[in-house]
Amino acid sequence: MSGYGAVAMPPASRELSRKAAIIGVGETDYHEDYKAERTRPPGYEAPELENLLQKAFDRALADSGLSRDDIDGLSVSYTYGGPPPDEMAQQLGIKPRYAAVNGNIMAGPLPRVCAAIAAGEADVVAMMFGVASRSAGRQFGGTTFPPGQTGAPSSYYYYHPWGWSSQAAHWALMFSHYQHAYGAREEDLGAVARQVRDHATRNPNAVMQKPFTIEEYMASRYIVRPLHLFDICLVNDGAVCLIVSKAELARGGAKPPVLVAGWGESKVKGDKMEVMVRQRLRPVIEEAGSQALTMADVSPSDIGHFEGYDASSIHLVNQVEGYGFTGAGEGLDFCKAGSMDVGGRLPTNTSGGNLSGAYMQGWSQVAEVVRQLRGEAGARQIAGLQASMSSLAQTDQAHPIIYVRGE
Amino acid sequence: MAEKRPDRTLGGPHSEFWDWCAKGELRLQRCSSCGQLSWPPVESCQHCGNGSLSWERMSGEGKVASWCTFERDYYRGVLPIPWDCILVELAEGPMFLSNPHGFTWQEVEIGMPVTLAFVECEDSSGVFNLPVFARE
Predict the structure, then answer these.
(1) Which of A60, A319, B91, B119 could pair covalently with A24 via S-S, beta carbons 3.0-4.6 A apart?
(2) Is residue A183 less than 8 Å (CB to CB) from chain B?
(3) Contacts for A342 with CB less than 8 Å, ≥ 6 apart
(4) Non-local CB neighbours of A140 within 8 Å, separated by 6+ positions
(5) Whose CA is closest to A214, among A204, A199, A228, A233?
(6) Active-site residue, A359 included
(7) A44 is annotated as an active-site residue
(8) What is the ipTM of this complex?
């Protein structure tokens, strides 16, 4: 089923592994656009979604070395709506034989496009994502989701009479329990937010590039106790374009293709609060991770880079632990030992993630995977990288994708 | 005087839940097929999908499983800030998101036993009984 809600992945299967490759990426100017929105210089106008999408596409096309005529597929994904495929194609000047509306977050869209390419529906697909949430005045929390609205997990709106709402509140419940279970302190979690910010200082396009100390983290205001401001992701406007090609056509290009090797998908069954808070989604993340590793035919030790969905610092820890990169309850020590830093065992969210880089609902993490596997990540480049994993994980589901460097 | 609260979800099984609260009873739906409890209210069992459910009265006993405190005013003045919430593991199993009654987050210990209480509240649909939890 297609649409602007979250879309499911095609089932993980060995036959679909390495059949398609990302050959072009384009992102908008997150840092400059955010700064302009905050300072509102004279004559400032909020960016139009169409302009953001155009910029991302132009950059991805130039990056791929292809021309418009080479593109025969289009996939559009928007968080709060956007141009339908026919209008988008007309604006971009392409004539796709495959055109799909592919949800929003980076969960289903890329695997679906890989499956479409494997099925011969297209050879080269432009995947468009755009979100203009900040300039739309989007607030997460409160009565954002009215009763009965489809697509929103029940936990997002059901508990209004108890005054409980917002994504942040989910992560806060998780961390309170984590503190109790493993004796963790707030400053231990601060190490994760600080590490991701440290990566952002090496990314000129990251929204937030000013480093902070653990003392500054502890002094920052709380959003939902026990979580501080720095534990919660950004809200910013932007667009991402990925150009995805049939693997055979991607060989021998100017830049190494990034092959999509595996993916997985799992959702909470039963009592969501139990699985989310007390198990921190561990069974869900494990199951999805296992599907992706089997499909890609790699082991966790082969993966040298991780791009997790850090809607909150604690949720990044859930994923690093859940996929088996470190043991349950060991994620904060793993981070404090430098294992999530470039040069460590598993450099994590190297462009600054959602906490400090950009909140593109998982799409900017895929762009960073491509840069890292190509060796184009500059001051934050991981040496000798062969395989990366990205992971979109919400409060009730997980969607990892594994990528390998091609020739 | 009834405390102001953001709006409840009403209709179908949701209204039935609040009707039981009005009688001073916390009742959740138990599935006649798999025997498990569902929460929040459902049209069919959240575990097995069976549609045959009956409202079962909870003992009102539980333990604090987690907590959080809102320092940001998401409800724009409806509730005072800071605002405390606790997640209670009911003796019967389900996790029940609620508020501490007569204590604050500084006094919360995970695992502490709590017991059901009701406070009179009001939203745009009228006055209702809200299930909260006090220290034993």
Answers:
(1) A60
(2) no
(3) A199, A202, A350, A380, A381, A382
(4) A166, A167, A168, A235
(5) A228
(6) yes
(7) no
(8) 0.97
